[in-house]
Amino acid sequence: MSDPQAPTRRPKHQAAPAETDPLLPGGGAEPTRTTTTTTSDRPASASSLVGSRGHPGGHVEGRHDLVLRIAAAMFAFMVMGTIQSVPGVLIPHLESYYGLSDTYVSIIFLISPVGYFLAAYMSSFIHLRFGQLGIAIIGPACQLIYAVGLCAHPPYSMVLFLSLIEAVGTGLLDGSWCAWAGAMANGNTVQGFLHGSYSIGASLGPLIAGTMISVGKTPWWSWFYVLSAFCVVMLVSSAYAFRAQDGKRYRAEKHDRNDSAIPHDKQDRFAIFRYSATWICAAYFLAYVGIESSITGWIVVYMLRARHASGYLASMCSALFNIGMAVGRLALGVVTDKLGVRLAVVIYLSTTIILQALFAMVELPAISAVLVTLIGFFLGPMFPSGVVLITRLLPPHLHVGTVSFVASTGQIGGALLPFALGAIADHVGIGAFQYIILAQLVATLFIWLCFPRLAVGVVGVSRSDEEDVMDRSHE
C-alpha cells in the first residue's frame, strides 16, 4: 500500500508554537500539529494545558474558557461511562423481565457500532454546520432521549432502538472530544483526564445500579431516573461551555488553516484509509474495546455462575474493574509520557496478561475481585494511548475523521466479542469467559507491536518528520 506523505516538517530554526497554546485554535474540532524543539520528558503542568489565544472576530479566549470546556468534556465522559457500564449489571434482570436467553439479550451489544458509524458519518457535517456547539447539544440530547425512554421500561425491541439513539450521541461525543484532546502537547495526560472520567462514571454506574436493585430492591428501570438527571446536567453544562464554538467560528478557523501547509487531500473524505496506521489502530481498538466491553458486560454473570459470588459482590466486581481503569488512566498517563507510549503499552499489556492468567487459576471470589481491579488498572491507559499515537502519526486535518473511524471500529469489537461470549455461554457455559479474555489480550499485544515495526514513512509520517515524531513521543 502506498501511503501519502505528511506535511513538510518545520525547519529547526523556526519557532514552534508555545506549549501553552490550547489544544485547538479556537476550540475547533481539528487539532493543530505542534512541533517542539525540546526532548524533555517532563509532562506539562496544568497551566501549560490551558493558555489563552485569540479567535476570529476579535474574541480572546482566556484560560477559564478552555478549562470550562475540558471540565464539560470530562463530565460528558463520566456520563458515557455510566451508560455503557450498567448493561452488565442489568443483563440478569433483563433476561428475567423479558424472558430472554443469553444470546438474545446479547443483541444489545450489537447496537453500539451501528450508532458509532452513524455518528462518524454525521460528525464532519455537524462540525461544519454547527461547530463544536452542535456536538455539545446533539450528543447529550440523544443520551437524554435514551434515558427517559427506558424509564418507561418499554418492550425489548424499543430498548434496542433507544440504545441506537444513545450510541449515536455517545459516538459523536467520543470521537469529537477525543480528536479535540488527542493532539495536545501532553496528550496522554489530557486523554487520561477524559478517559479517567469515563472510568469514574463506569465505576459509579454499576455501584449505584447494583445497590438500587440488589439492596434497595427497586426495579431495574429505576436506575434510568438517576441517569436522566445526569443527562440533563450534561446537556446544560456542555451547551454552556461550548456556547461560543459555533459553526461560523469553526468554518472561519478551517478557512484560516487552508494554506499551502495543508496537503491536497484535505477535502478527500477517504484520505484516512490510505494510511496504514489507520488500519492498524482500527485493529487495535477492535481487539481492545472488545476486551473492555466483554469484562464490563459479562463479569457479573460470570461471578454469579462460575465463582458463586453473591449478587452484591458480583455487581461490585464490575464497579471495581472500572475503578481500576479510572485510577490507571489518571495515574498512568504521566508514566506513559515518561516511558513513551509504545513501550508503556507493551508493559501494561504484558502485566495484564499475567494477571488474567492468575484470574483463571484462582477461583476464590474475593481474590477474583482484587485481580479484576488490577486488570482494570493496567488496561486503563490502553484507549487514550491509541488515540495519542494515531494523532501523532497522521496529519492534523485528518484527526477528527480518523479518530471517529477507529473509535467506530472499536465499537465493532465492543459488540462482537460480548455477543460471541453470550452465544458461547449458551452452549458451553460462562466458564469460557476467562480464556477468551486471555486470548484476546495476547492478540491485542501482537497488534500493538505492529506499530513500532513499521517504517515512519509507512505509518503516514514522512522520513523528514521522524525526528519531530520522536521528540513529541519522548522516545
From TrEMBL:
List where Low complexity composition bias occurs.
31-48
Which SUPFAM superfamilies does its entry note? MFS general substrate transporter (SSF103473)
Establish whether keyword Transmembrane helix is in the entry: yes
Keyword Signal in the entry? The reply is no
Q: Where would I find the Major facilitator superfamily (MFS) profile domain in this sequence?
A: 68-455
Instruction: Give start-end ranges for the coiled-coil region(s).
Output: none
Q: Which UniProt keywords apply?
A: Membrane, Transmembrane, Transmembrane helix, Transport
Signal peptide (UniProt feature, chain positions) = none
Residues covered by region (Disordered)? 1-58
InterPro entries documented for this protein: MFS, MFS_dom, MFS_trans_sf, MFS_Transporter
GO CC, any one term: endomembrane system
Question: Which stretches are transmembrane?
Answer: 66-83, 103-121, 133-152, 158-180, 192-214, 220-242, 272-291, 311-332, 339-360, 366-390, 402-425, 431-451
Q: Where in the cell is it found?
A: Endomembrane system
Q: What is its main location?
A: membrane
Q: Name one GO molecular function term.
A: transmembrane transporter activity
Recorded topology in the membrane = Multi-pass membrane protein
User: Which PROSITE patterns would you find in this protein's record?
Assistant: MFS
**Family classification:** Belongs to the major facilitator superfamily.
Name under which the protein is recorded: Major facilitator superfamily (MFS) profile domain-containing protein
Give the organism the record lists: Pestalotiopsis fici (strain W106-1 / CGMCC3.15140)
